[in-house]
Design a protein that fits this description.
Domain ABC transporter: 9-234
Keywords: ATP-binding, Nucleotide-binding, Transport
Protein name: Putative ABC transporter ATP-binding protein
Bound molecules: adenosine-5'-triphosphate
Oligomer: single chain
Shape: globular
Family: Belongs to the ABC transporter superfamily.
CATH topology: Rossmann fold
Number of strands: 9
Strand content: 15-25%
Number of helices: 8
CATH class: Alpha Beta
GO molecular function, one term: ATP binding
Helix content: 25-40%
Distance between the termini: 47 Å
């Protein structure tokens, strides 16, 4: 389904209702090839919901989402279109890391050779045979990222992948994201860690109350403000 010229992610006036609430309202944004876009917003703003809508986990009630120019739901092997890490607890705790990835590869029609390769990429080779219930938060983040890398997808979405990582882990994610973008992949990351956004982000999209209130390159976004944090607080109407 990949269309070479299409953006990694195209979101056109998407609204999502959860229960009786409209959680996202007319959200429009694009993540181009070779771009790292950070999704910012206060707790409950709708970032995770947007990522889940892109992954097809929550239905949209209006608007359209494309991944690599197509409809992810029509892909026979969605993991090869969209690499997804949405939660560090999305695993069976009784499984080992290698078993989790083998299961994911089998379910997605991915060559089992990729399992050892991604375990190596994320630094979990030594712990691959241990049960996930014994993994630290940082190790579970690494395993989630391994799952996102498994399908060698041109587009990736990551929900707060830095939480719980030690400084080496944070550096590793920073370099990994830069490498993925340099290979021409589109990457969308939700995060609250502004230092990392400033270091590795190309663009920021701020969601507030379920709508996009800012969408700019990091440089444009900061212009006229003393810091990224200051620009963000202005965007969400909390500047002093
Ligand atoms: N299954 C659900 N049913 C009803 N409301 C939900 C459901 N899941 C999330 N919400 C609501 O949707 C809103 C957006 O939640 P979401 O998790 O997308 O926010 P977020 O920006 O990712 O927040 P955080 O930074 O805390 O992770 C919140 O008000 C939340 O309570």
């Amino acid at each position: 389904m990949t269309t070479a010229a299409a953006p990694g992610i195209g979101i056109d006036r998407v609204s999502v209702r959860l229960g009786h609430r409209e959680v996202l309202s007319e959200v429009t944004l694009t993540v181009g090839r070779g771009e790292i876009v950070y999704l910012l917003g206060r707790n409950g703003a709708g970032k995770s919901t947007l990522l889940r809508a892109i992954a097809g986990i929550v239905p949209v009630c209006s608007g359209a989402i494309t991944v690599n120019g197509g409809d992810l739901a029509r892909s026979a092997r969605p993991l090869t279109e969209l690499g997804t890490h949405l939660h560090p607890d999305g695993f069976h705790p009784g499984h080992t890391g290698v078993r989790h990835l083998r299961w994911l590869a089998t379910a997605s029609g991915i060559d089992q050779k990729r399992v050892r390769a991604v375990l190596d990429d994320v630094g979990l080779t030594q712990a691959a045979g241990e049960r996930i219930s014994g993994y630290s938060l940082g190790m579970r983040q690494r395993l989630g990222i391994a799952g996102a890398l498994l399908g060698d997808a041109p587009t990736l979405i990551l929900d707060e992948p830095l939480n719980g990582l030690d400084i080496m882990g944070i550096r590793w994610v920073r370099e990994m994201l830069a490498g993925l973008a340099a290979e021409g992949r589109a990457v969308l990351v939700a995060s609250h860690l502004f230092d990392e956004v400033a270091r590795s982000g190309h663009r920021v999209v701020v969601v507030d109350g379920g709508t996009v209130v800012a969408d700019a390159t990091v440089g444009e976004f900061i212009t006229g403000h003393s810091s990224l944090e200051d620009a963000y607080l202005t965007a969400v109407g909390q500047s002093r």
